[in-house]
Please model this.
Amino acid sequence: MITQDTVSTPESSPSYNLKAWSMGYESQPNEYDYEIDDIEGEIPAQLHGTLFRNGPGLFDINGKRIQHPFDGDGMISAIAFDRGTAHFTNRFVRTEGFVAEQKAGKFLYRGVFGTQKPGGWLANIFDLKNKEIANTNVIYWGGKLLALWEASEPYRLNPKTLETLGKDYLDGILAKGESFSAHPRFDPSCQRNGGNPCLVNFAIKPGISTTITIYEINPDGKLLHSQKVTVPGFAFVHDFAITPNYCIFFQNPVTLNPFPFLFGFKGAGECLKFYPDKPSKIIVIPRYEQRMGSGEWGEGNGKKFPQSQIQESMKFLETKAGFIFHHGNAFEQGDEICVDSICYNSLSQVATKGDFREIDFDAISPGQLWRFTLNLKDLTVKNQLLLERCCEFPYVNPNRVGHSYRYLFIGAAHNPTGNAPLQAILKLDMNSGAEQIWSGAPHGFVSEPIFVPRPNATEEDDGWVLSLVYDSSHHRSDVVILDGRNLDREPVARLHLKHHIPYGLHGSWTPQ
Ligand code: 3ON
Ligand code: FE
Model:
């Protein structure tokens, strides 16, 4: 059922207005700090903690536009919930590039997705330094609030004021210049940490062959384990999936032709070429050494095992998978691993011809949810379409990460077919295929839904789904709180911000 301020739209007619949608990509140069007082419904008293969001906040400097939203400077928003009240704060991450460009009032760096320094190709030729931004995710881990971007180091922020404290090397885990992906996974019960949680993340160095470093870090921020592997060929990897015993990477059929970048014509990300007819490689990397003799995957015993053993025990599978940015979840099932991911027929998210505010949604293929069942014995892969509806930004109950699970929450289009902006939040029951949908159409545009379990919950969907929803009819954003069990009902609460927050990327919940 579709509820809320939805006009029932026939499936063939769009559920949105392109001009209204594009206003969500207006810069938000202001930094706010206030108690939210315009609230419909009631904030659940048990909802205690902070929702952190990251995403591009500026789409221009002095009116000169960036080429692609992924090039926008990271702006962190924090919504702190305490006994039924909510406080809003937003701050830009003061990266070196942000500070320098704001001072100069013009672009001083090249952006990965095509933003160029003024002056044409001659001003950009042989400048191989991309602007380092911190716009993709924000996590609270090891007592630190970290803004993440996949191509460079995290930036640390003050969790209360969001003031930027500088680049962070995770107490020596990272060396200068090393990246740390924007898609860490939180293992709820890590064997290496005695069944306690741990963060698993990767860093990728693409080249003629690609190096993947995997880190496992405990809740105090201490390194439990790291391992480095090399895989053949170029790889552009934005996200990965974990299970208790494996890390899974998809190496989609993409190459990089560096010349237009070198000669100043294009950003590095625009030089990616996708081969729709070629298979994707799936790389399965064991998190633990293989126990000698037994043939089973062993438990972590604190001993650092030879790199070569992991390198040799990696498995490579092949399938046709289109292009994947995000994985929803993965889990082991006997000799198989299931991976649920959002696939595109092409690499359309980084196509930058023309103005990104005027894109023709109909000309682009939608992201769709697929299940890949990897057989580790015979190295075959089964592909199954789970959701035809255009969707992106999958999220599962944090206690089910890496395990079999029942519910997936995801941003989705209002209509069941076709490509369109995300206006709805969908809950998919993996057991029955049943869907619950809440839609903000025609004026509302949603962001990644974050599921927060209710304290002491026993059911997987017992909790709240939080999403920042851009309300184009007022040009401001709302924090929408939905009931996880009854996603299709009226929101539990709708918090009206005094301004808009541009369409963001990822965020997280922390009970602090
Ligand atoms: O050779 C490498 C090529 C490359 C592209 C070098 C590299 C590592 C510098 C690189 C950089 C990649 C980066 C910086 C990727 C950043 C991606 C990013 C900021 C966001 C990705 C978002 C993905 C999706 C699917 C967003 C969807 C958005 C919507 C549905 C609408 O709101
Ligand atoms: Fe992402």
Q: What stands out?
A: The pocket of (3R)-3-hydroxy-8'-apocarotenol (ligand 1) is lined by residues 70, 112, 130, 135-136, 150-151, 206, 236, 238, 256, 268-269, 272, 325, 349, 392, 422, 503, 505 (CB under 6 Å).
